[in-house]
Design brief:
This protein has 98 residues and is mainly α. The protein has five helices and two strands. It has one domain.
Length: 98
């Protein structure tokens, strides 16, 4: 990969990352979930790609006093799990950038 560009390396990373759309859908299928009726509650067990998972997101939101009056920016959000959680559970405006 000596001649590989940065963009190519980024694509390789996300195409082989352990949390991709197809991998999440495969895991959900193993649980018997219907992909036409997915919810945040179902997805949260498979799309949180950070140390601590959902409890870590909750702790950060608590310490940051995130609520409906706040705006949340999640840089490098991946699949966007934490921003979605902040929208639903805290009524906060949320923007996730990959």
């Amino acid at each position: 990969m000596a001649n590989t560009t940065h963009s190519e390396l980024v694509n390789v990373f996300y195409n082989t990352h352990p949390i991709s759309e197809s991998q999440v859908l495969d895991k959900l299928a193993q649980t018997g979930a219907d992909p036409s009726t997915l919810t945040v509650e179902l997805l949260q067990h498979h799309d949180q790609d950070h140390f601590g998972g959902l409890p870590a997101t909750d702790a950060l939101a608590h310490h940051g006093k995130i609520n409906e009056l706040k705006h949340v920016l999640d840089l490098c959000c991946g699949l966007g799990g934490p921003p979605v959680i902040s929208l639903i559970t805290m009524d906060a405006e949320s923007l996730g950038l990959i």
